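If you are new to this repository, start here. Below is one unmodified record pulled from the training split, so you can see the exact layout before writing a loader.
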Amino acid sequence: MTYPEFIEEWLGESEDIECNTSGSTGIAKRIRLPKEEVKKSAIRTLKYFGFKEGSLFYSCISPSYIGGKMMAVRACINNGELKYENPSNRPQLNNNGRRIDLLAVVPSQMQYLLDNLATLPPISHILVGGAPIPPALRKRIADSGLSAWETYGMTETASHIALRKIDSDLHPFYPLPGIKISKNKEECLEITIEGWQTLQTNDLVEILPDWGFLIKGRKDAVIISGGKKVNPSEIEQMLENEFGFEVLVTSEPDEKWGERIVYIIEGCSEEYSLEKINTFCRTHLPPEARPKEIYCRALPRTANGKKERKTHAGGK
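And here is the target side for that same chain:
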């Protein structure tokens, strides 16, 4: 889908729009969202940042996904201007030097922008979504002085329902107005969008006294190895913070353990890193969470760049 096609759909007579889910934990699918709820979601973001009418919205992501669609919706509701470019890992921001009020990118695009800071136009705020932000990139963003925000949400919630400022420290997410959060009996996040729906997620959550929250991984990603539970996300975060590489903790079938833990590490050097990683794991992790195998190769990813968890390591 192109942006002109989506804008035509948005302005059309239908009461809803069609969206692709990301497929990060299963098969991607198409769903329909009520336009009225999509509009409310856009207004929450516009109010949060205090955008004045006529703002400039610039998207580097595909309108086939909710993050791209919402940039167009925000521009329409704001009576603003929408600029966009075909998604690539080398965004150009062709806006004739005008200040961009809101820019939407994914982490790999943010990396390129930071590599070219000197040529960036003025930007008020940047939304970084679609995939987790590696610790090394988070630090670069914080050091850059740019006002960048990590999003939490999903297609089913009509874009983000919470934001957190990207800083060197990992701050909690905070829900936007009209959003209530809770934790169900399985320790997973429950989202209530006022006047619309309550959605049960598979995201394990810690809710803080001030209603900020931290995502601790996904319930459906938990691996049972030797009868013990292993939370991949917690291990990944620990290793990424320590070494700066992107890590996927997954599993392979094993006759003895049922599932044996394996790590895929992107960007590491086998000669330099494997011994250090194994030493770190022996010191900081229980036996069931330590890798039986480590593969140094590119991480498997979904179409929009998220780690592909529904896969065995395979060794290739």
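Two things worth knowing about this chain: The mean pLDDT is 90. Helices lie at 3-11, 35-49, 66-77, 107-115, 135-144, 232-243, 270-284.
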